[in-house]
Amino acid sequence: MQLQADRKKIEDAGVTLVAVSYDATDVLADFARAKAITFPLLSDAGSKTIDAYGVRDSSGNGYPHPETFLIDKEGVVRARLSVEGYKTRHSTEDLIEAAKRVK
Questions:
Q1: Across the chain, how many H-helices and E-strands are there?
Q2: Phi/psi at 47 (nearest 5 deg)?
């Protein structure tokens, strides 16, 4: 996973990395162990957060689009990074550039 591989670079840019998934906590724990992921993976099993951020796929399959939100210490969304489709992700460099713009 690219985020894990680039975690130090991302954190050095002042970003705290957290992922949210509709998967249950036990599934996320197994995934984190299998992929050696060390940043928090949070469960949104009821998809309330996914729906609140408007990232659920509207085609009817219910999956969220992979998106990144930069949220400040007051909880305000300062940037949103998204790529069309679910197989492509934005680059670490895109994330770091967005973080620089919101500081």
A1: 5, 4
A2: 60, 25
Structure pTM?
0.79
Q: Which residue has the tokens 């309330």?
A: 48
| Cβ contact 78:87 at 8 Å | no
Contact of 78 with 85, CB cutoff 8 Å: no
CA–CA gap between residue 35 and residue 47 (Å, rounded)? 23
pLDDT digits (tens, 9 = 90+) for 28-44: 999 999 999 999 999 99
The pLDDT assigned to 86 comes to 65
**pLDDT of 58 strictly over 90:** no
Per DSSP, what are the bridge partners of residue 19?
41
pLDDT over 90 at 64, yes or no: no
- Residue 79 three-state SS: strand
Q: For 67, phi and psi rounded to 5 degrees? A: -140, 160
- What are the tokens at 17? 């990395």
**Phi, psi values for residue 68, rounded to 5°:** -120, 135
